[in-house]
Write a structure and sequence with these properties.
This protein is α/β, with parallel strands linked by helices and 298 residues long. The chain folds into two domains: 121 residues, 3-Layer(aba) Sandwich (Rossmann fold), CATH 3.40.50.2300; 168 residues, Histidine kinase-like ATPase, C-terminal domain (Heat Shock Protein 90). 42% of the residues lie in helices and 21% in strands. The strands form two sheets. It has a five-stranded parallel β-sheet, sandwiched between helices. The mean pLDDT is 84.
């Protein structure tokens, strides 16, 4: 039995505080503290040690988001979710350059916020349960093959992070977790199961278990359900590299929708590739788009 995920909310808006209070009960999340100012947070973070930080404060200019970088200095492994006003591409870029984990619009609804919490809670749980191996390895490589099990992704990414042993700082390890999670999810959802952006949007907009039903239907399909995702990992003296290959048809990776467009910013999905690019030194799609290579320099 897992203890509740330690979440810290910093928000000057009553609506956000109320929403997180409701979701905390349904998702086994412990709201450690709800404060209204950054200064309150910086004074109390040391004793509270949150695993997820939700930051929802008035942001007027990109420089305001330097606080995310300051938080990263205090705790490199904390997951930081930042609320931003719709239509402000400059603020999204500033948040990601300061190593925010993800962002959401300030008018986020309960379903979208619930999805974000579920996603990052799974990452925290996988990180908690892993066993650290302290060997020092300079060269290694291996290959793994995955079924289309979305719930296994946080555990697979944690295994891949721990396979690097002591090669990376805690901050870099969290970046790898977040980036791999996005790209393995894409490989299964959009690659193997061929769930289109439009289909996922429609399922998320529907009430009930529409998104789970969509996944289950595709996994039972005789073609889609039998596909695998392959991950090739290699480590040298100078870098670690991951290549994720799905068995789907691929996609036009040269003409992706702009995740910073006003209509895209209002959605809580469709930005995985954009987020992942901030986590690695190199990221490129190969062939028809069913293969993506990521490299992190040591």
């Amino acid at each position: 039995m897992f203890s509740a995920i330690r979440t810290l909310l910093i928000s000057s808006r009553k609506e956000t505080r109320n929403l997180l209070g409701v979701l905390a009960v349904s998702q086994s999340t412990q709201i450690l503290l709800s404060v209204a100012t950054i200064s309150d947070y910086l004074q109390k973070i040391g004793s509270k040690k949150p695993e997820i930080l939700i930051l929802d404060l008035p942001v007027l200019k990109p420089e305001d988001l330097s606080i995310v970088g300051e938080i990263r200095q205090i705790d490199p492994q904390i997951i930081v979710l930042v609320a931003l006003p719709a239509g402000r591409q400059d603020l999204i870029l500033a948040a990601m350059k300061n190593k925010a984990s993800n962002f959401f619009t300030q008018n986020v609804n309960e379903e979208e916020m619930s999805g974000l919490l579920k996603k990052y809670t799974a990452i925290v749980i996988a990180r908690r349960t892993g066993i650290e191996i302290l060997n020092v390895i300079s060269h290694q490589q291996f290959r793994i093959r995955l079924d289309n099990d979305i719930e296994m992704i946080p555990h697979i990414t944690e295994f891949l992070v721990r396979a690097t042993h002591n090669a990376f700082s805690p901050k870099a390890r969290m970046e790898i977790r977040l980036g791999l999670t996005e790209l393995i999810t894409n490989a299964i959802e959009h690659g193997n199961l061929e769930i289109s952006y439009q289909e996922k949007t429609a399922a998320l907009d529907s009430s009930g278990d529409s998104i789970e039903n969509l996944f289950n239907e595709r996994k039972k399909h005789p073609v889609f359900g039998s596909r695998k995702t392959e991950i090739n990992f290699s480590q040298t003296d100078t870098f670690c590299e991951w290549v994720v290959i799905d068995e789907g048809k691929g996609f036009d990776w040269k003409n992706l929708p702009d995740p910073l467009s006003p209509e895209q910013m209002l959605l809580a999905h469709g930005r995985g590739i954009f987020l992942a690019r901030f986590q690695f030194n190199e990221l490129e799609f190969l062939g028809t788009g069913n293969m993506v290579r990521m490299r992190k320099v040591l």
